[in-house]
Amino acid sequence: MSISIAIVEDEKNYNNALKKVINYQKDMKVVGQFFDGNDALKNLPDLSPNVVMMDIQLQDMLGIEIIEKLKKEMPETHFIMCTSFEDDEKIFNSLKAGAMGYLVKGESMDKILSSIRDVYNGGAPMSFSIARRVLQHFEKKLSEIKGFDELTKREQEILELLSQGFLYKEIADQKCISMDTVKKHVGNIYRKLHVSNKVEAINKFNHFKN
Hints:
Number of strands: 5
């Protein structure tokens, strides 16, 4: 049985090149070709392809929006982002929306074809540069979580008050402790979170909360 594929890509030459190469494969067939988001949004559910090759930045909307709107309606369909964007926000918004793969335009057709087969068989194909960014992101997250895990309850309370704009003296009064004790706690917070000042500590705290 061949893998059914839809292409959502507003760059006509690239869209047609993908279609030509995919249809040349014995185990694949393009069942839909779309050049704008609205057209894709309207027609993809009826086609229900196995795989959708999705551009991120379409002229009328983001490919991420299409996935968010269609994912529940098309639970069996696997979406692969195929895009020139490599910034963290777009990568993670795509993955959060439900994309199972992320390829950078410029990948060889062999890589694109193997990625389609891979995602169809339950994989999560990514360009090397994207996979590296994802790993770096999670390594950073883990180190942040580890830092917060090491904070005592009192240190967490003090960091919360710092983030709300309280001064050391106000924190000391609120917690019925001396200014020196507050400073000592703050020093421990900096050390455990691997930061060197209050702004960095608060940024990390807010990032962690979100």
